[in-house]
From TrEMBL:
<dbReference type="GO" id="GO:0000166">
    <property type="term" value="F:nucleotide binding"/>
</dbReference>
<dbReference type="InterPro" id="IPR004104">
    <property type="entry name" value="Gfo/Idh/MocA-like_OxRdtase_C"/>
</dbReference>
<dbReference type="InterPro" id="IPR051317">
    <property type="entry name" value="Gfo/Idh/MocA_oxidoreduct"/>
</dbReference>
<dbReference type="InterPro" id="IPR000683">
    <property type="entry name" value="Gfo/Idh/MocA-like_OxRdtase_N"/>
</dbReference>
<protein>
    <submittedName>
        <fullName>Oxidoreductase domain protein</fullName>
    </submittedName>
</protein>
<keyword id="KW-0560">Oxidoreductase</keyword>
<feature type="domain" description="Gfo/Idh/MocA-like oxidoreductase N-terminal">
    <location>
        <begin position="9"/>
        <end position="122"/>
    </location>
</feature>
<dbReference type="InterPro" id="IPR036291">
    <property type="entry name" value="NAD(P)-bd_dom_sf"/>
</dbReference>
<feature type="domain" description="Gfo/Idh/MocA-like oxidoreductase C-terminal">
    <location>
        <begin position="138"/>
        <end position="363"/>
    </location>
</feature>
<comment type="similarity">
    <text>Belongs to the Gfo/Idh/MocA family.</text>
</comment>
<dbReference type="Pfam" id="PF02894">
    <property type="entry name" value="GFO_IDH_MocA_C"/>
</dbReference>
<dbReference type="Pfam" id="PF01408">
    <property type="entry name" value="GFO_IDH_MocA"/>
</dbReference>
<dbReference type="GO" id="GO:0016491">
    <property type="term" value="F:oxidoreductase activity"/>
</dbReference>
Length: 371
């Protein structure tokens, strides 16, 4: 049971790099009932210029000593677990950016501590609030594709030259594309299909001289309606011509969705996120980027196919923070739980094990249920 917060919920964001600047501060400030009270930016004045009403702290300890109710950890991966644990021990509710932790054991320790203290701990698995995923989820739940057979998902980037001066390129078990994009993709499949049966993965370095894993192919096998569902997740940093974001095949038809969710690009280019209590619409995907649904009206006549565009269901990260607000008010259940975060990390560890041993690894009861 999470201790409720009375009145407005004061939020402090730690870190003002890409995550803090694009994914957290604009969306926290757009949710009524949440107040962006403080930001930790160790140097520079960009946070102060963007958020003049927020207190700017130069150190994490200063934020911990303040009266904020909720702390958002938006710092380099290796700091997520220790900073989240420190905040919990100081009585703060915590949102922690992905990956929730660098190891499964750390994620379990975080989950246990939050439960003992009656505090909220939520991994920032924001891709559940991508319109393309919400649309795919809706089609599968409605059985528009019939019995689901395969799902393919890609999150490609084009970074062929090693970037200098960024922690993301530093050699570390917590860095690399598997712990960068992998949490989004694996968590989406957990939300869509639940517990997988097995993991088969190839995690590798495709760029010459890379110190981090910069590509992966990750296969997950699930069971649904008494039959297997095969999922293939792919990501690379040399994807100049990205493939479809989602391809799903079922016994009644297929759904193909190209393009990527545009929230990051819109904010990064200066777009303002309107408050949820404003009449202004945040964004709606243009028709040219909608997915295509191909189905057979009569599966017995497979050549008679019908094609139609499927409008992308609007969804955005304000929904994530609205849920956090409602949980802290005692009005809702947590949408993305610390158990979701720990399970995601465990599946990524099994993917690394599979890649290292060139074997398929089963997902055991302990892997899934351990607390």
């Amino acid at each position: 049971m999470v201790k409720p917060v009375q009145g407005e919920i004061k939020v402090g964001v730690v870190g003002y790099g890409l995550a803090g600047r694009v994914f957290h501060t604009p969306f926290v400030s757009a949710v009524p009932g949440l107040v962006l009270s403080g930001i930790v930016q160790r140097s520079g004045d960009s946070a102060a210029r963007a958020w003049p009403d927020a207190t700017i702290f130069r150190g994490f300890e200063d934020l911990l000593a303040s009266d904020v109710d909720l702390i958002v950890i938006a710092t380099p991966n290796a700091t997520h677990a220790p900073m989240a644990m420190q905040a919990l021990r100081r009585g703060k509710h915590v949102v922690v950016d992905k990956p929730m932790a660098g190891t499964w054991s750390d994620a379990l320790a975080m989950e246990k501590l939050a439960k003992e203290l009656g505090l909220l701990l939520a991994p920032f698995h924001c891709s559940r609030w991508h319109g393309d995923f919400v649309t795919l989820q809706s089609l599968i739940e409605a059985r528009t594709l019939g019995r689901l057979v395969t799902v393919e998902a890609k999150m490609d980037r084009f970074r062929p030259i090693l970037r200098q001066g960024t922690w993301k390129e530093e050699e570390s078990e917590e860095n690399g594309i598997l712990l960068d994009l992998g949490p989004h993709m694996v968590d989406q499949m957990i939300a869509l299909l639940g517990r997988p049966v097995s993991v088969t993965a190839d995690v590798r370095r495709d760029r010459a001289g890379s110190k981090i894993a910069d590509a992966f192919d990750l296969g997950l096998e699930f069971e649904r309606e008494g039959a297997p569902v095969h999922v293939r997740l792919q990501a690379t940093l040399i994807g100049a011509a990205p493939g479809p974001r989602f391809v799903a095949h079922g016994t009644h038809g297929s759904f193909v969705k190209n393009g990527i969710d545009q929230q990051q690009n819109l904010v990064d280019s200066g777009g303002r996120v309107p408050r949820l209590d404003e009449a202004t619409e945040w964004w709606r995907e243009e028709e040219q980027f909608w997915g295509e649904l191909t189905t057979a009206a009569d599966p017995a006549v497979p050549a008679a196919l019908e094609k139609r565009r499927v409008p992308t269901i609007p969804s955005d990260y304000r929904g994530y923070y609205a849920n956090i607000r409602d949980v802290l008010r005692g009005e809702a259940e947590l949408a993305v739980t610390p158990q979701d975060g720990a399970r995601t990390i465990r599946l990524l560890e099994l993917a690394m094990q599979s890649s290292a041993t060139r074997t398929t690894v089963a997902v055991s009861d302990t892997d899934w249920e351990k607390e």
